[in-house]
Amino acid sequence: MMLKIRRCFSLLSLSLSALGLAGLGLQAHAQGYPNKPITMVMPYAAGGPGDTITRVYAGAMQKILGQQIVVDNTAGASGSIGTAKVARSNPDGYTLLMIHVSHATNLAMYKKLSYHPVKDFEPIGSATNGPMLIVARNGFPAKNLTEFVAYLKANGKKVNLAHAGVGSASHLCGLMLMSALNVQLNEIPYKGTGPALADLMGGQVDVLCDQTSGTVPSVKGEKIKAYAIAGKQRLPSLPDTPAISEVGVDNLDISISFGLYAPKGTPKPVLARLTAALQQSVADPEVRNRLDAMGISVVNVDKATPEALAAHLKNEIDILGGLLIKAGVEPN
Ligand code: MLT
Q1: Domain 30-130+256-326 falls in which CATH fold?
Q2: In whole angstroms, what is the distance from residue 215 CA to residue 223 CA?
């Protein structure tokens, strides 16, 4: 009996020392981190609002971390393909995910999601928050917001509404617009609103509700028309564009936050290094100015923390999943 207990203890002490060595290994790994380029996955197509935000942060954080950050646009299935890629990647700090509301909505939208947005990820911190803009192709037959609303109500499914897939920000905004106007438009999904915007400029689709980081430059370049901010306040960068609340539509008020994640199991010292680099980026005036010009707010430093991002994600999971199902969106 004694022999058995001694053997258990010896096994236990052996495993503890192994753990200790492993712990030393993790520390050493973190001390040398990063010693090679980092991949930041943006799970929507290049040229979209998420891609724009990701590239601003990748550019700022690589200067701080001293290693190149390569943006990887692995798009499709409302961001779940790129997200799954990060979930199954090595938890060593060299593969990160920049994502927004679809990290929450995909949990309700996909029956066979190969990852869990909370259990399979480590939050690093929130990065941005920003409004959405309702835009249309230049030839759209409405001179102002009042005529735009009347046209959608009168023409319904004859109007092609582009978005980036079920549960994406542009899809959520489109749903809220259709619900607010009590009208069903013809939905055209894309792998991101970058390609959707190209078709809007080409006149292949009629309307899009997208984040301002994807639309403000095209509006200013007169490549598309802006009809309204999807909320209650005008944008300083587009002072002549009304808020949709100005025509009595009060139940359409949406803003989109992006946050940075690493795969579950990434060593704590590595996560701390990434959070510190994110917080330095958030405080960087160049980052603030570039995003502010597109109507995007950089979060305050106290939001660029794992705790703040985890709380934000939980809130979105609790609220939005049910909202989509209630809106009659069929999970895939
Ligand atoms: C969306 O949710 O609509 C995406 O952010 C669009 C994109 O970034 O391409």
Answers
A1: D-Maltodextrin-Binding Protein; domain 2 (3.40.190)
A2: 10
